[in-house]
Amino acid sequence: MKYNTLLFPRKANQTNFFLFLLSMRLLFGSLLMTHGYAKLMGFAAMSASFPDPFGIGSRYSLMLAIFGELFCSVAFVFGFLYRLSMIPMIVTMAVAFFFAHGGSITGGELAFVYLVVFILMYMVGPGKYSVDHWMTNSGKRRR
After folding, report:
1. Coiled-coil regions in this chain (predicted)?
2. pLDDT at residue 104, rounded to an integer
3. How confident is residue 16, by pLDDT bands cut at 50, 70 and 90?
């Protein structure tokens, strides 16, 4: 094997790309789940003082953040209802960055990174190694 083709491949390898998408889902989904789990465990303490950017109450804003960060992250990791599950995640990170951190990179860099990654992942799709791919292709195999 030539080293120059290993280091500088001429065409994209689809398997590597799909493994990259899977690893991105596993990494960023798992990391966001930890934030949602921490909010769920601290629900009683946080519900009175959680930021309320939509005027629906701190308790309901916290519930929406937990839904976006914990439950939608599980669907994101598995690639199940991928784009639908990403909408609350993107909205949660946009609210965290623009409202909770005032759109400041110095204080809200983590929310900004999540936001950019999730928007890019939304545009690319879940990839081959996902429940959505399996569901859409399972009917084709039976025929």
Report:
1. none
2. 87
3. confident
> Helix H segments across the chain?
3-7, 14-41, 43-46, 58-66, 72-78, 82-95, 105-124, 131-142
The residue-averaged pLDDT of 83-96 equals: 96
Distance CA 28, CA 6 (A): 27
110-118 long-range contacts, CB within 8 A, separation 24+: 114/28, 114/32, 114/89, 115/90, 117/24, 117/28, 118/28, 118/86, 118/89, 118/90, 118/93
Residues 6+ apart with CB under 8 A from 72: 85, 86, 88, 89
Match 């690893």 to its residue by tokens: 23
